[in-house]
Amino acid sequence: MRGFRFIDLFAGIGGFRLAMQAQGGSCVFSSEWDSQAQITYKANFGENPEGDITKIKEEDIPKHDILCGGFPCQAFSISGKQRGFKDTRGTLFFDIARIVDYHKPKVLFLENVKNLTKHYHGNTLKIILKTLDELGYNTFWKVLCASHYGVPQARERIYIVCFRKDLGIKKFNFPSPSFKKIYVKEILENNDKTNNLIIERNDIKFWKRDESPKLKPIQIGIINKGGQGERIYSINGHAITLSAYGGGAAGKTGAYFVNNKVRKLSPRECARAQGYPDSFKIPVSRSQAYKQFGNSVAVPVVEAIAKQITEYLNYAEKTKVAQEVKIEQPLLEPLMISKDASIQMKIMN
Question: pLDDT at position 163, please?
C-alpha cells in the first residue's frame, strides 16, 4: 500500500513518522503539545506540529488512511460501568476516538506502556478495546520487547493495531522477532564526546559476573544502594528502558561500564538505542534530549509492525474481500507469519 496517508498524533519527536515514511507513507497532519519536542520535530521534518490535540477540531484534520499515536495512559472515570466511548471523556484517548469517529481511517496504529494491560485493574484496556469495537474496528494487541527487534534496549510496549471492519481483516499476526545480535557496545560514541558523562564516586561496587553477550541488560554493579538510576550494566548486553524521568546518578539512561569507567549514555547513544539514524538531528539541550528519547518509540519495532500492516492492507485490497481475509500459503513469507507457537497472534474480536 505505497502512497498511503497517515496522521501523527502525540507525535513527540517523530518516531512513528520515520517508521511510516519508510513504508511509503505520507504524513498529512501532526500534533504535539510540548514546545521542545516541536523544535526537534521541525528540525528533522521541516514542519512544526500542531499543538494541543484537545483544542483541534476533527474536521480540521485532513483525510487519512492510518492514524498513528503513542497516546498517554490515563485513568478513566469508569466506576465499573465500562460504557466504552462515554467512559473515555476527559482523557486524551477520547481525542483519538472522536477523530476516528469522524474520519473512519482504514487503520489505527497505537502504542503505550506495557502497564496499560494492568492499568486500573485492566479496566482501562477493556474500555479502549470496547470503544474501538464500537467505532467499527477489529482490534489486535500484543506486548513486544524492542530487544527482540534489532534494538539494544529492553523496552516493552503494548502495540494496538485496528482494521476497519469493512476491510474484512479478522486476523493479524504481529511481526516475528528478528533477534538481531546487537549490543550497547555497538552504539557508543567516542570517549572525547562522553567524558563529561563519567560518574566518579567512592560508593561504586562491582561483583563477579558473567559478561558474555546477551540480548538483555546485564547488571554488573551498583552505585550507592543500587536504586533506580544507580545500577551499572555491561556494554555486552542491552540498555535498560530509557526514561523521560527518574533520578539517581545515572537517571534516565542507566549506568554502563565503558573503557574502565562508569558513565551514562549520551543523547546520541540514546537515539541509537531507540533505532534512530545518526542523521537525526538533536537541536535541544541534553536534558531535553534525554526526556524526548525516553518518551519516544523504538523505531525498528514500529517499522516492522507498519510493514506487516501494509502487507495485510495490500492483500485485502488486491482480493477485494469484504467480509474475511483468508491468508493463503503463498503469502506466509511476505506476511512474516510466525510458525512458532510462542509468537502466535493475539486476536481480539
Answer: 98
- Please give the Cα distance from 133 to 116 (Å, whole number): 18
How many other C-beta atoms are found inside a 10 Å radius of the C-beta of residue 265? 29
Please report the pLDDT score of residue 19 as a whole number: 98
Same fold for the pair 5-179+297-348 and 184-294:
no
- Residue 73's pLDDT band, with cuts at 50, 70 and 90, is low
Which of 134, 203, 128, 196 has its CA nearest to residue 165? Answer: 134
Answering whether pTM is above 0.85, one says yes
Query: What pLDDT is attached to residue 269?
Result: 98
Per the CB < 8 A criterion, the answer to whether 66 and 105 are in contact is: yes
Could you tell me if 220 and 209 are in contact, meaning their C-beta atoms sit under 8 angstroms apart?
Answer: yes
Q: Is 183 left (phi over 0), alpha (psi -120 to 50) or beta?
A: beta
Top CATH class, 184-294 = alpha beta
Look at residue 90 and tell me whether its pLDDT is greater than 60. no
Can 27 be counted among the known catalytic residues?
no
Q: Which of 73, 145, 162, 270 is catalytic?
A: 73
Starting from the edge strand earliest in sequence, which strands make up the sheet with 231-234, in order? 204-206, 219-223, 231-234, 255-258, 261-264
CATH 3.40.50.150 for domain 5-179+297-348, yes or no, is yes
Number of Cβ within 10 Å of residue 214's Cβ equals: 15
Domain boundaries, the chain: 5-179+297-348, 184-294
Amino acid making up residue 326: K
pLDDT of residue 86: 52
